[in-house]
Amino acid sequence: MHFSPTQLHIPDGFLNLIVSLICWAITVTILSMAISRTNKSLGERQVPLMGVMAAFIFAAQMINFPVAGGTSGHLLGGALAAIVLGPWAAMLVMTAVIAVQALLFQDGGLLVMGANILNMGLLTAAIGYGLYRGAFGRSRTVKLAVAGVAAWLSVMGGALATALQLWLSGTSNLQTVVIAMSGVHAVIGLGEALITVAALTFIFQTRPDLLDEKSASVQGGRGWIFAGVVISLVVFYFHHSPRPTRTGWSVLQQTLASSTPDKPRPSNSSLITRFPSWEEPRFPPFLLEALECWSCWDLLTWQDVPCRRSHKNRNHRS
Amino acid sequence: MHADAFDRYHHGHSPLHSLDPRVKVIVTIAFILSNALLPDGAWIAFLLAWLFIIFATGVSGLGAGFTFKRSFIAFPFALAAITVLFSIPGNPVTSFHFLMWDLTITDAGLLRFVSIVIRSWLSVQMAILLVAVTEFPKVIHALTHLRVPAIITVIISFLYRYLFVLTDEVMRMLRARQSRSAAAEGVRSGGSVAWRAQTAGHMAGQLFLRSYERSDRIYNAMLSRGYKGELMTIHPHHFHRSDLVTGGLSILALVLMQIAGRS
């Protein structure tokens, strides 16, 4: 069966304890807000709905389409869930999906589940809903276009957050992981955007009442626009001008990744001299390729077997 | 598809199967926490942790190699950590020429990389063992007792219950898509990538509507069977003294691992 929807699921052991606990703290704070909001606004009728929606996201992650070279595009679902269910409910739904993937299928770790929920559930829902909320009152075409951009950005946001957490834990080299993650996910995000837009088009055509702006399920104030835009700008900041106050970031990284030995940098024998600072993204392309292979491996395990076989069978038969 | 297609539970009558689920969940999390706390290169502690897993798997009656078989699931992620081999300063171990780069693996980098991979490998095995000896509804029930908010555990219960139903739905859709897709010899088929994505998106939309309408029916059915907003269990947990002893001994073993890892 298909159990590895994205390569964003961090396994246990790849984040250090402090980073894991910080992520848990952020996740728990946001989730407790989500729980108190949904408890207020949702009746008991909505609980089975959210449960089945969680199963829907899980199952929808299996729908794929062949792209090229044996890879396939598929859905992460955070942005779609936020648009159709509202941001708070979507966060709870995505949390349940990620928890089951970790608990039942060991897709993502338990101690790092806070980080995984943050990257794939909370950030994707906030970006997806925040931008879409900004298009309220506009025409359907504008809404769909904004939803597409939001879906793409939500994947990028999740990928960059993952990259930063890996770096803060001292697991990865900064430029390599940021550039590889954002490079790979810029492409994966396109699949996400296309599927999200097509799914929304379909729902607009068949059940427009579910996407009604006044509908109870799609609740969320204007504050979401602010949150979505701010997070998107942060994503853009990291993606396009990776020039944060270097000393501040380095100190943070040194503090968090305390187990990383803090020795003086050696002579030009080490590759670190090839990465002088992160203003110059000169990373060896083979590492990018390796990371791409890694993501393709995941996509391949996801590749719907009957679907691929059918291509070959068709050729044989005809 | 059968209801247990996604189940990871292996039925048995071992002491580990009958252990209180709360103890199992706590020990699993403590074990993973302990791995995260161990410093790089704590080989003796890593070995002890592995022996702990082998012992637990042996007790479970699933065969000592049970967790080993599935334990490599997280290995592809190790690629994310491969840069530390070269980027952490230290004494060079080996240098090689790769394409156009002179790469040097340092001892500190190697130590860190191997430690990350071992930590991950050990943690995954414990998680595999947990769901192999505990029925998933019991894991969820244990989480309720461990103060996970009810709404999250209820959503997880529904997710678990309807996972295979909706997976069946997806399988039917994929089969329908296949049977409607034809290709002739020598003719390029399949449409553009955007067209394929659109088809996949329509399927996701269709699945959403079917799930949405199904949840209505489920709610009505539950209401007619006496649903009052919370899920009940007919298997309440009973905490025995043996559970306490097993849990205490496991935590003690983890503390010993920490001592061994730091000395």
Key descriptive features of the protein:
heterodimer, A: 318 residues, mainly alpha, two-stranded antiparallel ribbon, 2 strands, disordered N terminus, disordered C terminus, B: 263 residues
Helix content of chain B: 55-70%
- Major beta-sheet overview of chain B: 2 strands, antiparallel
Please compute the radius of gyration of chain A using only Cα atoms: 20 Å
Distance N terminus to C terminus of chain A? 29 Å
Instruction: Tell me the series of helices and strands of chain B, N- to C-terminal.
Output: HHHHHEEHHHHH
* Backbone structural class of chain A: mainly alpha
Poorly predicted parts of chain A? 1-6, 259-287, 291-318
Sum up the overall morphology of chain A in one term.
Answer: globular
**Average pLDDT of chain A:** 75
Note the run of SSEs of chain A as H and E. HHEEHHHHHHHHH
Runs of chain B in which pLDDT lies below 50 for 5 or more consecutive residues are none
Helical content band of chain A: 55-70%
Biggest sheet layout of chain A: 2 strands, antiparallel
| Separate helix tally of chain A | 11
Account of the 3D structure:
The complex is a heterodimer of chains A (318) and B (263). Chain A has 11 helices and 2 strands; from the N terminus they run ααββααααααααα. Chain A has a two-stranded antiparallel sheet with strand order 1-2. In chain B, helix 2 packs antiparallel against helix 6 and helix 3 packs parallel to helix 6. Chain B contains 10 helices and 2 strands, in the order αααααββααααα. Chain B has a domain of 146 residues. Chain B starts with 14 loop residues before the first helix and ends with a helix. The mean pLDDT of chain B is 86. Helix content of chain B is 64%, strand content 5%. At the A-B interface, helix 1, helix 2, strand 1, helix 4 and helix 7 of A face helix 2, helix 5, strand 1, strand 2 and helix 6 of B.
